[in-house]
Amino acid sequence: MFLAEPPRTQFDLNFQVLGFPVRIHPLFWLVGIIMGFDGSSGGIGIVIWLFAMFVSILIHELGHALMIRRFRRDAHIVLYAMGGLAIEGRPQGSFGSPWSFESYSPYQARPRTPYEQILISAAGPGIQLALAAAIIVMLQATGSKVTPGFVGILPIHELHPGGALAENANLARLADAMLDINIFWAFINLLPVLPLDGGQIALQFLVQQDPWAGMQRALWLSVFTGGAMALFSLVVLHAPLMMMLFASLAVSSYLSLQQSGGHRPW
User: Fold this and answer.
1) Cα separation of 122 and 197, whole Å?
2) Are the CB atoms for 207 and 190 separated by under 8 Å?
3) Do β-strands 83-88 and 75-80 pair in parallel, antiparallel, or remain unpaired?
4) Strands annotated E in the chain
5) Which residues pair with 158 in a beta bridge?
6) CA nearest 123: which of 184, 192, 171, 70?
7) Alpha-carbon distance 113 to 128, whole Å?
8) CA 91, CA 231: separation in Å to the nearest integer?
């Protein structure tokens, strides 16, 4: 979700998935605990939420990384804070991972084409939605029912456990969390707010239409959408963490506009 890779710490977890180096920053777990704590589900509820969040965000970043590999480039993954990064190239320097000396060699990335950037940005939410669809098919086949709905333009769901799921509250909680993260948050990430994936996609389209004014148009779109989502999160969703997230992204886009002149390009 965010663009700046955090420095390595002695508490990082390092491993590989499908040949991609993966690093988990300790803030990933801390923020996850804060997001998963609701005062009613207890320790097992937080553990289930952390597992669902870890799997879902890792799959999201693998979607980006696999698309980067599709264009014959290396990538590595970092999970931290409220999201993660799929970063082109091998890890290096203080951000590196200790798999090979090659990992620390200087990396000169070839600029991405707009077509490549759009596909790379869309691959993360896309693979999450595919995972959610597979989970729904599996749930329906085993006797459960998933009822879709919307809050504004945002998709929500209601899980009606059946079969084995009705007999295991923790399994039902895991399925519900997986659907929530891979549907609701995937759509959130597709909103045209920078630096979310939807913001990156909108930026590429707008710059292609007008190389001179496209960046400012994307930033204004990010300001308006982020501000609207912050208000919607507070008033309708009653989600203060989401409100703070979108408010901070809207402010960040506005400050970038001020640095570039700030004129409305319409």
Assistant:
1) 7
2) no
3) antiparallel
4) 13-17, 20-24, 75-80, 83-88, 145-151, 154-160
5) 147
6) 70
7) 24
8) 38
